[in-house]
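Structure ticket #2291
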Amino acid sequence: MTDTDMTAPASGAATKSHAPGKIRVLVAKLGLDGHDRGAKVVARILRDAGMEVVYTGLYKSPIEVVRAAVQEDVDVIGVSLLSGSHVPLFRELGRCLREEKAEHIFVVAGGVIPEQDYPALLDCGVDAIVPQEARADLIVTTIIDLVSARGQI
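Resolution: structure written out below.
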């Protein structure tokens, strides 16, 4: 399976006019974490739930992810991390979102994240944390609940 098999076509520029009621999600892998099977599974789950999904691929920096999210006009950035460096990476992602004036984009964290690190991630600007063992319906409803609470769908 290739990355393009599971993503909405990239427009090359911010659309600001994506389909009403369609949630747009950017699925990202930050840093040196080279394990992307879970991210690809999540991208497919979200696409199958009717969301428009863009997958960034591996080894992205926080600023690359934020700029891609702004360019693609997404509602949510979903980050899957298995590397153990989640706190500094999410701290940097939050800083980049503020610098790029993109704090309106929700951030969902997933992967191998110990519960004792949840408060630090929430302080960094993470809006929701989905545990590694989460079922597909929890992933989907977490994103729908975030976006609908803001009245965007």
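Closing remark: Helices lie at 37-48, 62-71, 86-99, 118-123, 136-149.
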